[in-house]
Amino acid sequence: MSFKDLLVVVDHARNCGRRIDLAARIARDFEAHLTGLYVTTVPYLQPTVLAEFPVDFRGMQTRALAEAAARARGLFAERVEGAEFGLATEWREVEGDVADQVSLHARYADLAVIGQSDPDDVTLGASEDLPERLILGAGRPVLVVPYAGRFESIGRRVLLAWNATREASRAANDALPILTRAERVTVLSVNPSVGPAGHGDVPGADIALHLARHGVRAEAASVATSDVSVDDMLLSQAADAGADLLVMGAYGHSRLGELILGSATRHILRQITLPVFMSH
Predict the structure, then answer these.
(1) Residues with Cβ within 8 Å of residue 213, at least 6 apart in sequence
(2) Phi, psi at residue 57, to the nearest 5°?
(3) At what angle do helices 130-137 and 264-271 cross, to 10 degrees?
(4) How many domains does the chain have?
(5) How far, in Å, CA of 263 to CA of 280, rounded?
(6) What is the rounded end-to-end Cα distance, in angstroms, of the chain?
(7) Residue-number span of the structural domain to which 224 is assigned
(8) Which of 145, 165, 191 delimits the end of a domain?
(9) How far apart are CA 65 and CA 52, in angstroms?
(10) Residue 205's CATH number
(11) Are residues 15 and 120 both part of a single domain?
(12) Radius of gyration (C-alpha) of the chain in whole angstroms
């Protein structure tokens, strides 16, 4: 099992170059094909509003959008077409809703690489809820790269969040290509429940054994907390362990439940300081 087809979303965020670099390194390590995807979103204007603009406004808008796409294409080419990587690459430009288009194209890839939403960097065509919508809609694992920081490599020291749910199981399986290459994988259960209906007699031991049969160097650990949220504990434990990747399942409740009750997934996506590999 390996990644052979990767997709990276290219936009005008200030960290986009580093995101492409990371995607290119993953593609190089797995000898995978890398596709850069740029989505143009044409703002809709009411006819009454449009009438207030210059006669050639639509033409000016079209030229500006084409120039923006050309800049994104140039950035992708600059980052991946050098001799350092020697990758098989492809460039795609599409038009429409960002999350819808990325979800569509991600379904034909093994892994989609996107950026964390930066509240202080609102860029052309940006979609604040892209990570959440993509994780729910793509049917593929998603690697979310923080907007701050440099990440020369990922997957050497991995923290796998385990709560014995379908989503966690899916994430562990989807991440196997990375986990089998890792130097150390810590399977962490936060506030685990014991017994056959929970995490088992030894929390995390069963999934760690399963991963070991795939050649993963996995060890099980658990932690109890009453005054810190599970998501904050995961990030704290990742930092303490020196992890360079967090693997976790996303959205254990229904989407309606997530909207009403709030979400550890949503909080993680806003607070991450290391790349996060998520599956739903």
Answers:
(1) none
(2) -60, -45
(3) 130
(4) 2
(5) 14
(6) 19
(7) 157-279
(8) 145
(9) 20
(10) 3.40.50.620
(11) yes
(12) 20
Q: Which of 84, 117, 145 is the last residue of a domain?
A: 145
Nearest in space to 145 (alpha carbons), one of 18, 260, 266: 18
9 and 117 housed in the same domain: yes
Of 27, 67, 33, 48, residue with least CA distance to 177: 27
| pLDDT above 90 for 8 | yes
Cβ-contact 12, 119 below 8 angstroms? no
pLDDT (mean) for 148-166: 91
Task: Give which of 95, 44, 86 is closest to 66, Cα–Cα.
Answer: 95
Check residues 132 and 92 and name the one with the higher pLDDT. Answer: 92
Q: What are phi and psi of 62, to 5 degrees?
A: -60, -45
Instruction: Check residue 83 and give its pLDDT.
Output: 46
5 touches 88 (CB < 8 A)? no
167 and 119 within one domain? no
**What confidence score (pLDDT) does residue 55 get?**
59
List, for residues 270-280, the tens digit of each pLDDT value: 889 999 999 99
How large is the greatest C-alpha to C-alpha distance in the chain, in angstroms? 72
Judge whether 269 and 131 are in contact, CB under 8 Å: yes
Collapse the DSSP code of 76 into the 3-class scheme (helix H, G, I; strand E, B; otherwise coil) and give the result: helix
The answer to whether residue 240 sits within a structural domain is yes
Residue 153 clears pLDDT 50, i.e. is over it: yes
Write the burial class of residue 188 (CB in 10 Å: 0-12 exposed, 13-18 middle, 19+ buried).
buried
Q: Residue 267: how many CA atoms within 13 Å on its side-chain side?
A: 12
95 and 173 share one domain: no
SS3 279: strand
